[in-house]
Design a protein that fits this description.
By secondary structure, the chain is an alpha/beta fold. It is about 35% helix and about 20% strand. A five-stranded parallel β-sheet has the order 2-1-3-6-7, covered by helices on one side. Strands 10-9-8-11-12 form a five-stranded parallel β-sheet, with helices on both faces. Strands 13, 14, 15, 16 and 17 form a five-stranded mixed β-sheet that branches. The radius of gyration is 25 Å and the shape is globular. The structure holds xanthosine-5'-monophosphate.
């Protein structure tokens, strides 16, 4: 690893990740560690040029106020504190709500003048480093990867492919709840263009049979998740000599599960509930990256823009948008209306502006008129929301002419649909998905 690093010690701030992102935005790599890191653990980290002790309101654990190990001041590495008045030297950071820019300015002098860190954190170096590290970890062994086509798994696939080529075996499970053209795009990019070793499993019938008649949202999710693991496990058992499992774990997964202003990162051992006898060691080359960096990495690796900048899509797929018990014809109405919505949002430029947008088809019908006769068909509901962290969300005020064009197309092109509605509800009280 060539890049210099600034270590952030978590002494109870809510904003460690904002600080890490600000330092990375200066071109210097930064990672967050628990407050009680020892001097030996610290010295074992590569190229640490400086330490920022980041204090905050969560600095009491079990009734005791916590502090850093005093020995870290003797590591010969510059130390500065923010929001922690007991430290030997400190800086005042701006309000985090002021954004990354003002934090960058506040830490710039410490990072470059005091620590003499070099601004050498960029995606080209990251990719080159990771290729080296993957080769070192895996050698000539084989790695198995569940390639859903989502941003993280796609970028991991592209990175592993560059590092180990044919020794990467990707499995794409189509659970029948993918969006229109999604599995085809995975095959086109990875198999046809990048020549990856890709096993495509069309498990549509299997999933839809299991889901038949199941209306409870939680049960649907459990069936989809459980069946996914079983299909993947069956494929893994057919293959010989696999020692590693690729994972799209990213930095927020690690930080969020590891804070509580103490214990280290969660170690993701047996991922996705695979059975005990299927033991793999994990390869997680994105574990240092924030989401926007994952996208930048995908661009660096030459993945198509649409794949890298696509909107979030839930694991259970269209299954949570085909409300109640899923039927094939209603699922088709969800898939076709979603495709029209995505196409029209792209034409209107809204795909780059709106965080998440999709359609829902409920399991009831209403009366309408088609070809001068009474019809009894489903409604399609359009949802378009903006959010920063998916915890709360607001509605995108889509302009009438765009909504009218989408409505017109859905009513003409999607079978068994006679109404289109727009969901006006923010989160809370609603959630983003309907199930
Ligand atoms: P809600 O509906 O809880 O959704 O407001 C928040 C965000 O999470 C996505 N979502 C999921 N993602 N598996 C996922 O990978 C899931 O089971 C799941 N459920 C919801 C949702 O699309 C939204 O972006």
């Amino acid at each position: 690893m060539k890049q210099d690093m600034i270590v952030i010690l978590d002494l109870g701030s809510h904003e460690n990740t904002v600080l890490a992102r600000a330092i990375r935005a200066l071109g210097v790599y930064s990672e967050i560690y628990p407050h009680d890191i020892t001097i030996n653990e610290l010295k074992a980290l590569p190229n640490v040029k400086g330490i920022i002790i980041n204090g905050g309101p969560n600095n009491v654990i079990d009734g005791m106020e916590i502090d850093v190990n005093p020995e870290i001041y003797d590591a010969g590495i510059p130390v500065i504190a923010a929001g922690h008045d007991k430290a030997r030297c400190s800086i005042k950071l701006p309000q985090f709500t002021d954004g990354v820019e003002s934090i960058k300015n506040a830490v710039k002098s410490f990072v470059f003048d005091t620590c003499k860190a070099e601004a050498n954190w960029n995606m080209t170096n990251f990719v080159n480093d990771q290729i080296e590290l993957i080769k070192r970890q895996v050698g000539d062994k084989k790695v198995l990867l569940a390639l859903s086509g989502g941003v993280d798994s796609s970028v991991v696939a592209a990175l592993l492919l560059k590092a180990i080529g044919d020794n990467l075996i990707c499995v794409h499970v189509n659970h029948g709840l993918m969006r229109k053209g999604e599995s085809e795009a995975v095959i086109e990019v990875f198999k046809n263009q990048l020549n990856a070793n890709l096993i495509y499993v069309d498990a549509t019938d299997r999933f839809l049979d299991k889901l038949a008649g199941v209306a409870d949202p939680e049960k649907k999710r459990k069936i989809i998740g459980g069946e996914f693991i079983r299909v993947f496990e069956e494929e893994a058992r057919k293959l010989d000599g696999i020692d590693y499992l690729g994972q799209g774990t990213i930095y927020p997964d690690i930080v969020e599960s590891g804070t509580k202003t103490a214990k280290m990162v969660k170690s993701h051992h047996n991922v996705g509930g695979l059975p005990e006898d299927l033991k793999f060691e994990l390869v997680e080359p994105l574990r240092q990256l924030f989401k926007d960096e994952v996208r930048a990495c995908g661009v660096e690796l030459g993945l198509p823009y649409e794949m890298v900048y696509r909107q979030p899509f839930p694991g259970p797929g269209l299954g949570v948008r085909c409300l109640g018990a899923i039927t094939r014809d209603r699922l088709e109405a969800v898939r076709e209306s979603d495709a029209i919505l995505r196409e029209e949002f792209q034409i209107a430029g809204l795909d780059k502006k709106v965080w998440q947008y999709f359609t829902i088809v409920p399991d009831f019908k209403s009366v309408g008129v088609r070809d001068n006769a009474r019809s009894f068909e489903w409604p399609v509901i359009i949802r378009a929301v903006n959010t920063v962290d998916a915890m709360t969300a607001t509605i995108e005020p889509v302009e009438w002419p765009i909504l009218m064009k989408i409505t017109d197309r859905i009513l003409k092109e999607v079978k068994n649909v006679n109404r289109v509605c727009f969901d006006m509800s923010p989160k809370p009280n609603a959630t983003i998905e309907w199930e």
